[in-house]
Amino acid sequence: MAVKYLDERTFNTGDVIFSEGDTTSEMFIVQEGTVVLTKQVAGREVFLGTQERGDFFGEMSLLHASPRHATCVAMAPTRLLAIRSGELLMKLRRDPTLALEMLTQMSRRLTYMENHVATLIEHQLEARQALAKVLAKAEFGTHDEKS
User: Fold this and answer.
1) What fold, for 1-94?
2) Burial class (CB in 10 A: 0-12, 13-18, 19+), 101
3) Which has more confidence, 64 or 145?
4) What is the dihedral sign for C-alpha 102, 108, 112, 114?
């Protein structure tokens, strides 16, 4: 008898798969369809990315039992395989290539995030420099008026 370690789930366009802050702990592999991941930042919804056939998501909550960091919504009729923690270990034992695929995809995500953080820091430094120039001009202008 084969051991069933995956649950197949289907979602319609617009269905919420999970919400930021949820304490569910499955990860998902997209079989069909597309999902979008978003996060609330300073009261605004920020787009994190899309996942399509063959992609996985939700692994962070599975691997370290933390609340969901994002909201995931089906953007088309979608079929997902849900994997729970113990089931992931069984799946990796049966299919070690999944571990390599996961590491590759997680490495790409980390590279993307590092580049994004570097860009944000660059913009922040540029904004500080611009503010320093404005303040210096304002201070210099104040000294000119006293002369």
Assistant:
1) Jelly Rolls (2.60.120)
2) middle
3) 64
4) positive
